Amino acid sequence: MDIRHYLDSTYLKTASQAGLTKAQNLEVVKGFIQEAIDEKFKLIMVRPEMVALANEMVSAANSKVAVGTVIDFPKGNGLLDEKLKEAVIAIKNGADDLDYVVDYEAFKRGETDVVKKQVLEGTRLGLSHNKVVKWIIEVAALNDHEIVQLTALIKNVVIANFKEEQYAQVFVKSSTGFFEAKKGLPNGATVPKVKLMIENAFPLSVKAAGGVRTYEEALEMISLGVKRIGTSSAKAIVSGQKSESDY
């Protein structure tokens, strides 16, 4: 097994979040893109404004690394039209994967019709352009019952509206990695929460994101059944090193 095929190498910090100038942050992004190309990771995940750059670098290197981006990141509370407009721009700029943040707060308020509409239209847009679509549910913001319900909601919308051969292109994803959890609590993927997702997402796949920083942790997630791992520690994972990353 080549663990690289599971890794979505990720850099989503703005310059201010990273404590860098825009120029410095751009160089960090370029470094992550080049590393993904060199290491032959499955995908490089960047912010929407960096998609064109990533696509350009991947194409110039004649690389098979996919380019992914996040939509309505990190809170997912934008209007559906805003989500779709952002996704359309990402597609035009060469994104292969669209990782939408679902409006999990609307879901928690009981506004399930709003969430179902987002999942339907966002998935339809992505699949109509032959893209991979992932729905980030932000497990750290949900209790176990809500994780089960929201995962099942996404699955049921996809099963009801799309062809079976398209299911493999739709994922439920654990986390943005940017949620501010209560002190001491994880803000990303954990084994118990990912288990709940896997049990309730099938036949859709699950992506574990946030908190996976070592080779052993990655193997544990893969053994549970995840098909993708989102991490800013991809190089450390494949080399067996310890990562100091917070994602």
Protein described:
- The protein is an alpha/beta fold.
- Helix content is 45%, strand content 15%.
- It contains ten helices and eight strands.
- Strands 1-2-3-4-5-6-7-8 form an eight-stranded parallel β-barrel, surrounded by seven helices.
- Helix 2 crosses helix 3 (51-60).
- The longest helix is centred in the first third of the chain and has 18 residues, at 22-39.
- The model has no long low-confidence stretch (mean pLDDT 95).
Furnish the topology, listing elements before pairings.
Layout: E1 7-11, H1 15-18, H2 22-39, E2 43-46, H3 51-60, E3 66-71, H4 80-92, E4 97-101, H5 104-108, H6 112-128, E5 132-136, H7 144-161, E6 170-173, H8 191-201, E7 205-209, H9 215-224, E8 228-231, H10 234-239
Helix pairs in contact: 2-3, 4-6, 6-7, 7-8
Helix content: 40-55%
Quick one: biggest sheet? 8 strands, parallel, barrel
What is the count of helical runs? 10
Judged by helices, strands and strand pairing, the structural class is alpha/beta
Overall body shape? globular
What is the CA-based Rg, rounded? 17 Å
- Please give the number of β-strands: 8
Unreliable residue stretches = none
What is the H/E order?
EHHEHEHEHHEHEHEHEH
Q: Average pLDDT, to the nearest integer? A: 95
Q: Strand order of the main beta sheet, please?
A: 1-2-3-4-5-6-7-8
